[in-house]
Please model this.
Amino acid sequence: MSVEASGGEASELRDDPSATASRPLPPGPASPAASEASPPPTLRPATEADLDAIWAIESAVFGAEAWSRDLMRDELTADLRCYLVLVDEARAIVGYGGLLAVGTEGDIQTIALSPKARGAGQGRRLMNALLDAADERGVREVFLEVRADNPVARTLYASLGFEEIGVRPRYYQPDNVDAVVNKLQMENRR
Ligand SMILES: CC(C)(COP(=O)(O)OP(=O)(O)OC[C@H]1O[C@@H](n2cnc3c(N)ncnc32)[C@H](O)[C@@H]1OP(=O)(O)O)[C@@H](O)C(=O)NCCC(=O)NCCS
Model:
């Protein structure tokens, strides 16, 4: 996660107890960053009208492994799916994720955030919303596959209670990277 230092005179004074004692901070926001912080994105169900924005993120994030636009449209409109989007204050879609729920079995089909939206808890929020949707549909076991060389996603899934149960060798082409199969028993959800 990248956190930029806000810097500036006020934060230097806060870091120096003797300075704050002799020279109080002026009234106003605690720091420049606090007054400029964006509100968190909103979360809502995806519709076919979101296809262009979702596919723009999909193709930028996954490159050669990205789903085709037609496949993405099929996913957004097919039965048994639940797709959600994160929308920022400018109404731009900054993330999406999808669940397939068939009986008691669910699959996280995909999840991706645009780079600027990452590392602020929104991926976890989106995953939790998809798992809530799975729970509401009576799903008891959720599966997903993740690239072996994706430590951020693997750590997130483990923290939610997923277990790594197998490997599909060289599943991701053309990179020749293994897929790690994850399973969550809903009673083990954290
Ligand atoms: C994977 C992804 C959805 C996670 O979303 P995110 O918003 O970046 O992650 P969050 O801020 O919610 O963090 C969730 C957890 O991920 C892990 N994590 C996040 N950023 C990390 C980093 N830079 N390094 C290591 N772990 C990190 C941490 O375990 C974190 O939990 P914590 O903050 O409680 O410690 C997002 O990074 C993404 O879209 N990546 C590209 C697409 C992708 O890999 N999709 C998954 C395909 S299976």
